[in-house]
Amino acid sequence: MGDATGGQRRGSDGRREVLVVVPTYNEVGALADVARRLTAAVPGADLLIVDDGSSDGTAELAERLAADPRVSVLQRGRKLGLGTAYLRGFEHALAHGYRWCVEMDGDGSHLPEQLPALLAAAEAGAGLVVGTRWIEGGRVEGWPLHRRWISRIGTRVAQVSLRSRLRDATSGFRVLDTEWLERLDLGRIVSQGYGFQVELAWTLERLGCPVSEVPITFVERSAGRSKMSLGIVFEALRRVLGWGWTLRMHPERLPHAAALDYSSASEITP
């Protein structure tokens, strides 16, 4: 198993710079290509694959990829969910002193070639950079109409219910400054799927984290099966509406409640 101790780019202060966290569950058809393209697009980045007990050979493929010292693997043995996979990745990034932590899908939907643009926004000062589909320059390829509407309506519900400025709250292609991750109580982030992405971004917004949205092209997977389900969608909707009610009625019950003054929060930049 690789340990991500070699090959990484370091900043002027000696810190490791970029850790890309890729959760996997039965992604054997896409993972090798994602890893190859990622290391070509950002040669100095390290890759952490968090596998949830894949049964199609993904786990074995990940271990072979870890022959590259830039790649490490965390085998969790069973399906524990997207949110907890990213949280483990964040903990790894913090424990090993990385400057930025990247969220990216392992199915090829997120184009590794677009990661340098997200990293440039992070280097310019954004604490959270969101690869956004629903702004000028962003687009989706291969999605049926109902998937587009689920994503866009989900973001709109989050904007209204949570008073969020994000224009793609459910996007899973992101760069996070670990200095902002350190300010979070990661144990309070409890959602999965769409809900996890909304909860994480909204929590950072409320802390005043500077946010940048960068247009991306999202490509429907060419291999494997989507993990999206009605259960994931309804979990996100239930949580967002619940947070919205708490925000209005009992804001003191929210984590980081003292940071709810939106007048001092950083503007979201395109």
Q: What general outline do the C-alpha atoms trace? A: globular
Derived from helix and strand composition plus strand pairing, the structural class reads alpha/beta
Order of helices and strands: EHEHEHEHEEHEHHEEHE
The main pleated sheet reads as: 8 strands, mixed
> How do the strands of the widest beta sheet line up side by side?
3-2-1-4-7-5-8-10
How large is the radius of gyration? Answer: 18 Å
Mean pLDDT: 85
**Number of DSSP E strands:** 10
Give the count of helical stretches. Answer: 8
Helix content, binned percent: 25-40%
Low-confidence stretches: 1-8, 257-267
Strand content: 15-25%
Q: Give the CA-CA distance, first to last residue.
A: 39 Å
How does this structure look, described?
With 270 residues, the chain is α/β, with parallel strands linked by helices. Helix content is 36%, strand content 16%. The protein is built from 8 helices and 10 strands. The chain has helices spanning 31-41, 58-65, 82-95, 115-123, 145-162, 178-181, 193-206, 230-249; strands at 18-24, 46-51, 71-75, 100-103, 128-132, 139-141, 174-177, 211-215, 217-219, 268-269. The strands form 2 sheets. It has an 8-stranded mixed sheet with strand order 3-2-1-4-7-5-8-10, with helices on both faces. A two-stranded parallel ribbon has the order 6-9. Helix 5 (145-162) packs parallel to helix 8 (230-249) and helix 7 (193-206) runs parallel beside helix 8. The longest helix has 20 residues, at 230-249. It is globular, with a radius of gyration of 18 Å. The N and C termini lie far apart (39 Å). The model is unreliable at 1-8 and 257-267 (pLDDT under 50).
